[in-house]
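Why predict the complex rather than its parts? Because the way molecules touch one another can change local conformation, and only a joint prediction can capture that. The input here totals 758 residues.
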Amino acid sequence: MNAVEPDKTHVAKELKHDRPLTACRFDPTGKYAFTGAEDNFVVRWDLESGAATKLEGHDSWVRAIAFSPSGETVYSGGYDGRIMSWSAAAEKPEPVLRYDAHLGWIRALAVSLDGSRLASCGNDNLVKLWDTADGKLVSEFRGHESHVYNLLFHPSDGSLVSCDLKGNVKHWDVATGNVTREFTASALHIYDKTFRADIGGARGMAFSRDGKQLALSGITNCTNAFAGVGNPAVLVLDWESGKLAVQYEGKEKINGVAWGVRQHPEGFWIGLSGGGGGGWLYFWKEAAAEEFAKVKLPDSGRDLDLHPDSLRVAIAHADKTLRICELRAKPA
Amino acid sequence: MRCQYDCGSNEHRLSRRTLLGGGLIGGVTLGLGGLVTRTGVAEQVKSKQQRILNIFLHGGVSQLETWDPKPNTDTGGPFRSIPTSVPGMHICELLPYTAQQMHRLAIVRSLNTKQGDHGIGTIEMTTGRKNMPGTTYPHLGAAAAKALTPEHFPLPGHILVRSAGPGSGQAAYLGPKYASVNLADGKPPENSVRPQNLPSEVSARRNDFRRKVNDRFAGRRRTADTDAYTFSYDQAEQLMARADVFDVSKEPEADHERYGRHEFGQHCLLARRLLEADVPFVQINHSNYDTHFENFDYHIEQLGEFDKPFATLVADLADRGLLESTTICVMSEFGRTPRINKTYGRDHWGNAWSVVLGGGRIQPGAIIGKTNDNGTAVVDREVDHGHIFHTILQSAGVDTRAEFEVGGRHFPIADPAKDAIRELLA
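Output of the joint prediction:
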């Protein structure tokens, strides 16, 4: 791996869609990026050629995208409550499996370490586990009392963690469906008494590479929910104790939401913000609450992923563009 | 100054109900209970009290997430449309319960109020007039109360059920007796229960004395203001005697469950109770829809609260035989932009949006007007706040082309430059 220089991060490629983007993920092989948008399509982008292939089948926007460990299969979860699986590399991918999974939006998908289970969560306050071979429901986890915004499998022990609108984090035993532990990311939620509505949720979620920390990203210090007046933040929890290790925020307070978070193999965290303050990439490390580097993006960011080569990030933008940014200086 | 607004004639003692119902017939102009109408009298008297229920969705509900969905378009957002109980009529999937009541309601999809300011939009939608600095027009509730409240009615004619905080329905030149009585947090009007340490006999003696002094004063110096003052005392007494009308806890437990225990559910149940008690105008405010940020998430949350109680209320009014004498409107100060902004929000938009009407003389199941494919412009039957104001009152039987007479001056009931949406009225 070449050395990264976060402060030199730059846009290396722009891939244009015809609607604002909502989601992006690199496939595990690193050949493609997949996006969701304010339409009913998933689009596969060939990173080398820039060729776009539409995956058609959803009846609403898609924000949840996940892959089998090999990258052979891509799963999409839509605001239509439907999960679909596709052959990721097929010339013209057709749905392999298609099932109505949730009542209301699906907000996140995650695949188990061995690839046999797909976890989903959504606006029906449920977490569900599916058999990836046939799309059959394996189990349904109840306990959240608000929309479930995100979920992940732990990278080594295979347990499942989910976070809801109100910042309640639940650690599930996949075998029994029982809640093993509960902890809070309440800094990412408020009930706005003026507008009489909740705002919050883990918009992004990632484990550290060693599985010892869990990062949740969203909006904090929110003073006006309906105008999005609040600051992007990433909460890093110590996985063993469930306690807050550090809360990352920007040195300069801007309005926005941290829509994505990833840990780089070198140990620093990358956060993406979007909102009234524009789009920014933040770089935080260790216990320092303030960033050691940040980079302004051309537009508001809505989702983030780190490429398997750890040199590139994909950012889904509101201006209909998928930007591939390199975490190093531009070649001379 | 001697009061000039009421000559004390028999005509003035007739119920305001005599103004109702015959507004479209035409005829001689008569002064009745402070109103002037061109219609005849006796034949217009309705056997049933007419009522109006106005549900105001504060902040500006999105027409695309409610009554005029545009799925699969660049402006349509993530929600799908669903069929309703009216063949061919679709509304947003966020309103599944309401969808089953649409055969009792009608949609006007062609409002162009050209207004994107909260305050001005609220004024214009609730007064039916263009906002003019320095001029105050009566709220729809005040006009309805003046036109529809029977003589000697023991309750306020204009009630606003809302959350805590400021806001009320102004009566303007109609006089303070038609201003809204506000039930903040759905609670009974303040001081409507006699203090325990004041026995009823003592209270009665005090009031007798006050009346005596007041009558003596009024004999020489009666004005509209002193009358309003006297009225407020009389009304307070009557209201205290009927305080149970405001007590939603007296409704059956099963109904609390059906409407929901949350605030809007309880307010809808209270509205049913008030309408059953023949209160002529009830407004419920539901807050908030000013969703510049994450419009879709908030509409899930707010409409999730609105949908079931509203649909339950419509169904209950129909089942109890009250819908034909209760005109319903669901309005906001404006709609929201078809364009989705960078934070998944929609902004203020008065150029192409919708309201829902029902009951009274409203044609059930009707769709009036049309917007273009992605909802950015009205393409058929453009109307505004003035038309809606006329339509609501005419649906309740008020001749909106008539005038109110106040202190010897005549005031048009509604904007004379506008009229009702005639094809929407049975």
